[in-house]
């Protein structure tokens, strides 16, 4: 999976709609301190489903919305769109996908995949299956190297699992186990009803 384009509007310091094309090869972002370089990486993580406001350097998730300056009023929403190229998998699921996340003050986040409303979970699964996502070790923010060195064995295992692309399988396993438990409860209930009727 390769990120080809990033579009932001009202996200942190990117108040005006901005678009960045990520061409093949190495891309560097340079600029003075505080110009918004880290905000761009955070925008990618956010669109991939980041749910921790703290890891977005905010107190609450609405802190990603442009907060205003002395000369510009605050915005009511923030929107980030990433266009990704899926590697051919042979299952017909390749091609371009645009993931859009939008947050409105007082209304929370909403996601769209190629224009269709989806749940946060669908976005998380899409990236987990592609061995990437908001917590991918491929996204290295400031201070992250020190965190990897100090990580506990279980945390390191999580990183390896994400890199190996099996994080999505864990989510599916949890879902399947929940369905299994619900079915077992239904079967037990059915047995009780049948016993009552006999
Ligand atoms: P450095 O090189 O120091 O790491 P940087 O280029 O990575 O800096 P960022 O940390 O991405 O810069 O951007 C910080 C800037 O973003 C600050 O000026 C901060 O005021 C601004 N900013 C963050 N959140 C918001 C927000 N919600 N509304 C407006 N501006 C914001």
Question: What features would you describe in this structure?
Answer:
It comes from Edaphosphingomonas laterariae. By secondary structure, the chain is an alpha+beta fold. The protein has 5 helices and 6 strands. The chain folds into 2 domains: 2-165, 3-Layer(aba) Sandwich (Rossmann fold), CATH 3.40.50.300; 171-198. 36% of the residues lie in helices and 21% in strands. Strands 2-1-3-4-5-6 form a 6-stranded antiparallel sheet. α2 (120-129) packs across α5. The model has no long low-confidence stretch (mean pLDDT 89). Bound molecules: adenosine-5'-triphosphate. Residues 12-13, 31, 33-39, 63, 65-67 line the site of adenosine-5'-triphosphate (ATP).
Topology:
Elements: E1 2-9, E2 18-21, H1 37-47, E3 77-86, E4 95-104, E5 108-113, E6 116-118, H2 120-129, H3 144-150, H4 153-164, H5 167-197
Antiparallel strand pairs: 1-2, 1-3, 3-4, 4-5, 5-6
Helix pairs in contact: 2-5
The structure holds adenosine-5'-triphosphate.
Give the key terms.
single chain, about 200 residues, Rossmann fold, 6-stranded antiparallel sheet, binds adenosine-5'-triphosphate
Helical segment tally?
A: 5
Kindly report the average pLDDT value: 89
The 3D shape can be described as: globular
Report helical residue fraction.
Answer: 25-40%
Give the biggest sheet.
6 strands, antiparallel
Q: What would you give as the CATH superfamily of the largest domain?
A: P-loop containing nucleotide triphosphate hydrolases
Oligomer type: single chain
Strand percentage lies at: 15-25%
SSE succession: EEHEEEEHHHH
What structural class should be given to the helix and strand makeup? alpha+beta
Number of strands: 6
Low-confidence stretches: none
C-alpha termini separation: 58 Å
Mind telling me the CATH class of the largest domain? Alpha Beta
CATH 2nd-level architecture of the largest domain? 3-Layer(aba) Sandwich
Q: Please state the CA-atom Rg, rounded to the nearest Å.
A: 21 Å
Each distinct ligand: adenosine-5'-triphosphate
Count of structural domains: 2
Order of strands across the main sheet: 2-1-3-4-5-6
Quote the CATH topology of the largest domain: Rossmann fold
Subunit structure: Homodimer.
Binding site for ATP: 32-39
Protein name: Chromosome partition protein Smc
Subcellular location: Cytoplasm
